[in-house]
Specification:
single chain, 370 residues
Length: 370
């Protein structure tokens, strides 16, 4: 009997030692507390690396709900990135759902599971089901501002998809109350991009563009991230509606200079072209589009925008000069010469136009200056 007890005790100690080693290895790969990520971001240099480490953690500790929720959160983040391929996005969403459900079975009282499941459902376009999940999360954690914020943001999305006006107004009013409660419970949310963007959408939905503008300007004051891109587009659109084309163009220029935006530059340029049609009086926007097409050597489009620029600002010497250059590149020498001469009429000291005219008359000795 004593031998059996000794053997059982040894087996128990071996089992506990194995569990401790696995826990230590998992903690070394990815700490359980998310705050450690903020304190030491260098440990996890990229999103794929975080996902890979969490996958290995779950192999070591399949019952760790925290790690499963962290993995689901990062899979949902990767699925939401704009440059993801559809098949990769679907794979991430399906794995995220599996991790969330496994975490809920292990830790059913944790509201994070409901929140992440709500985010998953939003990604799949199932807004009403997502709302139900977020409401459950609020019931489970009524004193957490972030949880109220998730529900409020989902309500804003739901109202945008709702055709019936009474229901839309009810959703907006509920969202307004929740936003206020969230900010009271967690003041740090006023620096959260998604929170500010949803507040701007709320005020746009109730025809309060001035208030929406203030929230979008707060986002513009924050460091650029991929999440700021849609908000900055909304901000530039509001500036154009207010007749502030220069400020709108500054936003577009800022986005074009953002090296991390290479994945979405075609969408940005397409949006600028579309906006230039709706706001044909935005001279600065036509100037910027002309420069973009000139750099690409798309001279017909460059001429189109430069012509609009000089029509709106006929006193711009630089506008006439740029238009002349575009005409010259298209082989329309007489039109180019007319623009260079107009440049000099406005600005006698314009060295570029002077040189172009001198070169023209040197190449044609019999020609006379107008």
């Amino acid at each position: 009997m004593r031998r059996i007890l000794t053997l059982a005790l040894m087996l128990l100690l071996v089992f506990l030692a194995r569990q401790a080693i696995q826990h230590w290895r998992a903690e070394a790969l990815f700490p359980s507390f998310p705050s450690s990520l903020r304190a030491d971001p260098a440990r996890f240099p990229s999103l794929p690396e975080q996902i890979a480490r969490l996958d290995r953690c779950i192999v070591l500790q399949p019952g760790n709900a925290d790690h499963r929720l962290l993995l689901a959160e990062r899979l949902l983040l990767r699925a939401s990135l704009p440059h993801q391929k559809p098949e990769s996005q679907l794979r991430d969403l399906n794995q995220a759902q599996s991790e969330i459900l496994a975490a809920q079975r292990a830790k059913p009282i944790d509201p994070r599971g409901q929140i992440l499941l709500g985010q998953y459902l939003l990604e799949r376009g199932r807004t009403e089901e997502a709302l139900a999940r977020f409401r459950q999360a609020v019931a489970m954690a009524p004193h957490k501002g972030q949880v109220h914020a998730y529900l409020a943001m989902a309500l804003i999305r739901a109202q945008a998809e709702t055709p019936e006006r009474p229901r839309r107004e009810a959703l907006i009013e509920e969202a307004r109350i929740l936003f206020r409660q969230a900010a009271d419970l967690d003041p740090s949310l006023v620096a959260n991009i998604a929170f500010l963007s949803s507040l701007a959408d709320l005020h746009l939905a109730v025809a309060q563009p001035d208030r929406a503008l203030r929230y979008l300007q707060r986002i513009a004051a924050l460091p650029d991230q991929w999440q700021t891109f849609p908000s900055l587009l909304k901000l530039s659109s509001l500036y154009l509606q207010r007749g502030e084309a220069r400020r709108a163009t500054e936003i577009y220029g800022r986005l074009l200079k953002n090296q991390g935006l290479g994945w979405d530059r075609p969408r940005l340029e397409a949006e600028m072209e579309r906006v230039s049609i709706f706001y044909p009086q935005a001279a600065e926007l036509h100037q910027l589009l002309g420069e973009i097409h000139s750099n690409r050597e798309d001279w017909p489009k460059a001429v189109l925008h430069y012509r609009r620029w000089v029509l709106l600002q006929p006193g711009s010497a630089e506008g006439h000069f740029r238009l002349g250059l575009a005409y010259e590149k298209m082989g329309k020498g007489e039109l180019a010469l007319a623009q260079y001469e107009e440049t000099l009429r406005i600005d006698r000291g314009h060295s570029g136009a002077t040189q172009k005219i001198v070169d023209h008359y040197r190449s044609q000795p019999g020609a006379r200056f107008k």
